[in-house]
């Protein structure tokens, strides 16, 4: 039985997001707006099937996948790149590799109680986000 990430999670910490966005090539004006946002994750999980929505007042991003099955991800509204994306379990951690133009890109999620962690990696830059469960 894998861990259950389902729920609504509100951001409480967002460390190094600016450097992560620079590494992704996001322009200055967009970074200034994005840096003010308080993203919410709405996660629906059924076993190995995930729907992760990242919601903000500026833009939303939605990603649907099955653990262990590579898919074509287009990071629409983010850096608008195409990746071959694969998410795997590492114990109860969700480890994502986004293969594409940018090397060493991916993210990792894990949960401790009602806290959801997310590490976003782009090259040698890592953004560390923390979310609290609100529903
Ligand atoms: O999440 O891959 O939970 O998809 C990363 C933002 C700002 C847009 C968000 C809107 C990277 C302008 C998704 C931000 C910055 C800045 C919220 C992270 C890029 C553009 C939509 C992500 C995974 C894991 C699931």
From TrEMBL:
Q: Which PANTHER family match?
A: FATTY ACID BINDING PROTEIN (PTHR11955)
Record protein name field: Retinoid-binding protein 7
Task: Specify the species.
Answer: Astyanax mexicanus (Blind cave fish)
> In the UniProt record, what gene is named as encoding this protein?
RBP7
For this chain, one GO molecular function annotation is: lipid binding
Record-annotated Cytosolic fatty-acid binding proteins domain positions: 7-24
List the InterPro entries: Calycin (IPR012674), Fatty_acid-bd (IPR000463), ILBP (IPR031259)
PROSITE patterns (UniProt xref): FABP
Look up the signal peptide feature and give its range: none
What the record says about family reads: Belongs to the calycin superfamily. Fatty-acid binding protein (FABP) family.
């Amino acid at each position: 039985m894998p861990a259950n990430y389902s729920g609504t999670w509100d951001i409480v910490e967002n460390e190094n997001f600016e450097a992560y966005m620079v590494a992704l090539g996001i322009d200055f004006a967009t970074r200034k707006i994005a840096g003010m946002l308080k993203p919410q994750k709405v996660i629906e999980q059924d076993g190995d099937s995930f729907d992760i929505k990242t919601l903000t007042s500026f833009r939303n991003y939605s990603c649907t996948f099955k653990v262990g099955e590579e898919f074509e991800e287009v990071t629409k509204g983010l850096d608008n790149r195409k990746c071959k994306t694969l998410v795997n379990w590492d114990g109860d951690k969700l480890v994502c590799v986004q293969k594409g133009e940018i090397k060493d890109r991916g993210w990792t999620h894990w949960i401790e109680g009602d806290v959801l962690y997310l590490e976003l990696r782009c090259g040698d830059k890592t953004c560390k986000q923390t979310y609290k469960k609100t529903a």
